[in-house]
């Protein structure tokens, strides 16, 4: 379980995260939604210890993230940020192999190789595993990075806008994969996402942020609500139920 | 290019290098050396060969490490001020201790090289240019500023002539007794090999490295120390060899990718082969005289550099 207690973060005295407390259960998908500048990415980066917090406490399975060895944390929680930043010429397999770094420090064992194969097969990248990342389309590259995270084999997976720059088909593909990771492998996934319909259709819980504070958190069906969304986005959003799923019409 | 191609070239050029020179020494003499020939072989030709191989291999690898850590393909000891800072260090050591031992000179030069590279990396963090080409331009300017400080100090102290000897890389003065310091590069390069995976991960960016539990700062600092040490030892014994750390890693990346574990050996070998080749050219062109290595490498290297710049989109650099 991921627990945040009164977490606080400021840049040059400007508060970006204020008194955020929440609990995330194992085996669920939790989406963080909210307008630009709400502090979603900052929050996720703090949970994954990429940036430090200025106050409060974050624990994962009872361990304080700041007082646990980097290497141990890397076996427990992984984060995937925007993936177009990588500019090294690496093959898919090389990238996925890096996922095993916390376990092997670069000297791959048989177990590592097996995990790498498994991750590559899971993301259906077998045919192109020796191609360079810069030759791939955005969707393929995203899949390669997710394969790396699968190889890293952490219980908790954080993704910062995983659907950025992806077309509808690839977006759905990625979200289905994430759902499967939770259902089949028992992973716990936290993601920052902009499209509230994807959040509505694929997540168990939603945390809505605005100006660094939690506006509402709870089960998806409770957060996807006309009043709540009005509060977050300052927009009148019509919500329709189609086959038991809440779809927001904000156009 | 396969690794054995490079090894073959290295062996062929090595033989050529040993048997090329004013003193007549050819393969047929090898089992029947006269005293002069033996002396030339042991005190001049072999040390020269060894220093060329070490300089070529180590400067190329340093370039490769610097490029990965700075995440910019155009950063190298020449384009990051490292070489200029190392030279300033030697100059300062000469002024502080009139009879500085090579080891003292190298230590001070190392400290300067490290500081210079560090300042450059700080500049890199502050200035976020979209176009990768601006970074080496800033580095070159930074290097030239350091260089002009050196020249000023040297001018004030009548050391201009001494300084120009490190300005131009030159293997013709290498002899037993004055190149051994370079051997320090060998254990350092082994260290680089051990750290190869970590350098590549660090090259993927701070967030990426932290996610995998890597101590990013520590790895970057180790990389910078390695670069400064190797650069200082090479500048002190041979002098400045321009562009080497820039072009060799980029050529290797084109056909071998960017995973350090796969590129280190290629980079080292190609670097050695390239410098050997340039050295042989420099010894033939105006035989029996010599053109300094910095000139031949500079001419060939800058042409390759421009070529890489123009074709970089095609190679995805």
Explain this structure to me?
The complex is a heterodimer of chains A (251) and B (317). With 251 residues, chain A is α/β, with parallel strands linked by helices. Chain A is built from 10 helices and 12 strands. Chain A has helices spanning 40-47, 70-74, 92-98, 101-104, 110-122, 138-152, 168-185, 196-202, 220-223, 226-233; strands spanning 2-11, 14-24, 29-33, 55-60, 63-64, 77-80, 156-160, 188-192, 205-210, 213-219, 238-242, 245-249. In chain A, the strands form 3 sheets. Chain A has a 6-stranded mixed sheet with strand order 6-7-8-3-9-10, with helices on both faces. With 317 residues, chain B is an all-alpha fold. Chain B is 72% helix and 0% strand. Chain B is built from 14 helices and no strands. Chain B has helices spanning 3-18, 35-70, 82-96, 102-126, 134-156, 160-167, 185-194, 196-203, 206-211, 216-237, 244-256, 260-284, 293-310, 312-315. Chain B starts with a helix and ends with a helix. The model of chain B has no long low-confidence stretch (mean pLDDT 87). Chains A and B meet through helix 2 and strand 6 of A and helix 8 and helix 9 of B.
Helix and strand topology:
The complex is a heterodimer of chains A (251) and B (317).
Chain A: E1 2-11, E2 14-24, E3 29-33, H1 40-47, E4 55-60, E5 63-64, H2 70-74, E6 77-80, H3 92-98, H4 101-104, H5 110-122, H6 138-152, E7 156-160, H7 168-185, E8 188-192, H8 196-202, E9 205-210, E10 213-219, H9 220-223, H10 226-233, E11 238-242, E12 245-249
Parallel strand pairs in A: 3-8, 3-9, 6-7, 7-8
Antiparallel strand pairs in A: 1-2, 1-4, 4-5, 9-10, 11-12
Chain B: H1 3-18, H2 35-70, H3 82-96, H4 102-126, H5 134-156, H6 160-167, H7 185-194, H8 196-203, H9 206-211, H10 216-237, H11 244-256, H12 260-284, H13 293-310, H14 312-315
Helix pairs in contact in B: 1-12, 2-7, 2-8, 2-10, 2-11, 2-12, 3-4, 3-5, 3-10, 4-10, 5-6, 7-10, 11-12, 11-13, 12-13
